[in-house]
Structures are given as structure tokens and as C-alpha cells.
Amino acid sequence: MPSYAPAFNRILDDLAKRQLRLDFQFGTASNIYEPLRSIGAGAFGIVAEAKVSNTYKSDGENVAIKKIGHASSTPTLARRTLREVRVLRYIRHPNIVVLKDVFRTSGSLGMNVFMVMELMEGSLHNVIHGAEEPLEWDLIAHLLHQILRGLRVC
């Protein structure tokens, strides 16, 4: 009996790449950033890993780009987006990601805001849920300490 798994996986990969291109249409910034893969999604945005063009303030590094879709659709969302950009623009702390760039595009329901940040290796979610055994208390205390250090400066 033939296996359809490889063909099915290719179709899923192709669909994921198409969705990534649709979600991350950068407008005039598309000659600077090239989306590579989806990293995650939350209540207020989606995040992708992207490569920075060698010709733009970079040596071809990879970054994380958070898209806040329809950021101007409601006054509350517009204020929340502006507050996040302002806070990240001025804070420099080892426990908070660095905001490198901000740009916007027009969307069907208002402005899309893209926040370019340093790319972190791994995630807290993977540390917590990726362990085969429960985390040791020393590691939990260390992680909580790092989180609280970052929150203290906000």
C-alpha cells in the first residue's frame, strides 16, 4: 500500500509557506526583511522569524517580527500598540528583547504594525513543557527571578 505521508507533508509545508507570505506582507520593507517561518501567535499578534537583507544595517542576521494586525481598528488596540512600542524603544535590559525597528502597512481593516526584535533562541514554553521530567526548584526559581527582573524595569 502506498504511503501518502510525504506528499501530504509537502502540501502542508506549501500551505504554511503561503500563509506566512500572506500574513507577513511588508510593503516597502519587503526588500529589507524576508519572512522565514512562523514562530508563534498570541492574543494581539503573530510572530515570524525573518532574515534581514545584507544591505540594510546588518550582516544578514535573523530577527523576530511581531505583526499586530489592524492595530488602528479600535482606540484601545491603537493605544496598547503605541504603549508597547514606546516601552520597548527606550528600555535596555538583559531580560527584555531589544526593539530594532518598527514599520507599518495598510491593511483591509486598518494599519498593520510590525515590530522587529532580536531573535531569542528557544522559548520559555519549550523550557517548561519540553522537559521530560519536572523542572527542578532551583531552575524554576532562576526563571522566575529573570522574569521579575525584566518586569521590574517596565
From TrEMBL:
Cross-referenced SUPFAM superfamilies: Protein kinase-like (PK-like) (SSF56112)
Binding residues for ATP: 67
Nucleotide-binding among keywords: yes
Pfam families: Pkinase
InterPro entries hit by this protein: Kinase-like_dom_sf, MAPK, Prot_kinase_dom, Protein_kinase_ATP_BS
Keyword ATP-binding: yes
Keywords linked to the UniProt accession: ATP-binding, Nucleotide-binding
Boundaries of every Protein kinase domain copy: 33-154
GO molecular function: ATP binding; protein kinase activity
Protein's recorded name: Protein kinase domain-containing protein
Native source organism of the sequence: Panagrolaimus davidi
